[in-house]
Amino acid sequence: MSRHAALNKFGRSGNPALSSGFGGTQATSGNSFAMADQMTLAGTVSKTLFLLLLCVGTSTYGWDNAALTFPAAIAGLVVAVVTIAKKQWAPVTAPLYALLQGIVLGGITGMYEARFPGIGLQAIGLTFGILFALLFCYMSGMIKPTENFKLMIASATGGIFLLYMASFVLGFFGINIGFIHSNGLLGIGFSMFVVGIAALNLVLDFDFIEEGVEAGLPKHMEWFGAFSLMVTLVWLYLEILRLLSKLRSR
């Protein structure tokens, strides 16, 4: 695939970070950049592992300091927006995002563990199990992210986001969208659907990172690609926690 065609595809990702960030990045061409200055798959993988280690490292602190969960979540959101808007800052902002999300995930997991012992380990196992299973399916060609597939996942992701925002706003007026939090069959079905969409966003992440490598994007996009994977993994983990808590509360 040509670099121009690859770049045109970056605007159609279901992951907000990828769709906003890759689309505005110029690919390297000719001899303007040495190969060492270009995005590589190995570099993106190593940076993703580094961000995961940072996240795990601060999660223990968040577990013991649940009061920091909300402030860290707000700070993480700000850092995420900055990273998407200024992707060249990703070598600094991506690690900061991982550190903040570790505090958030540690605090939230601690709250769930107080009610459902062992749920955190189950959620971690399922999250990474889904990650590696989908990576295998993607690498083997069992899942092909066609344009229709990408449009479907992007639309579903946007719809879930709007529904969550509506639930958040309506909550201030004492109005609850029951099935979002319910442990009934409808609530469990909804959570399973959201987990599925979050998981399929990983396929889009794999695809766009691969296209970025092929397009010869600048080196800092390795950090941006790793950040984008982190965004999806954090979402997937939280949705799995929510689903498991519904199942265990029945």
Give a brief description.
With 250 residues, this protein is mainly α. The protein has helices at 3-9, 16-21, 41-64, 69-85, 90-115, 119-140, 147-171, 178-181, 185-215, 221-248.
Q: Biggest sheet, in brief?
A: none
> How many domains make up the coordinates?
1
Q: So how many helices?
A: 10
**Stretches with pLDDT under 50, minimum 5 residues:** 1-12, 28-33
How much is the average pLDDT?
A: 89
Question: How do the helices and strands follow one another from N- to C-terminus?
Answer: HHHHHHHHHH
Which class best fits the helix and strand makeup? Answer: mainly alpha
Over the alpha carbons, how many angstroms does the gyration radius reach? 18 Å
Shape: globular
Proportion of residues in extended strands: under 5%
**Percent range for helical residues?**
over 70%
SSE blueprint:
Elements: H1 3-9, H2 16-21, H3 41-64, H4 69-85, H5 90-115, H6 119-140, H7 147-171, H8 178-181, H9 185-215, H10 221-248
Helix pairs in contact: 1-9, 3-5, 3-10, 4-5, 5-10, 6-9, 6-10, 7-9, 9-10
Describe this structure in words.
There is one protein chain. With 250 residues, the protein is mainly α. It has one domain (15-23, 36-248). The chain is 76% helix and 0% strand. It contains 10 helices and no strands. The chain is globular.
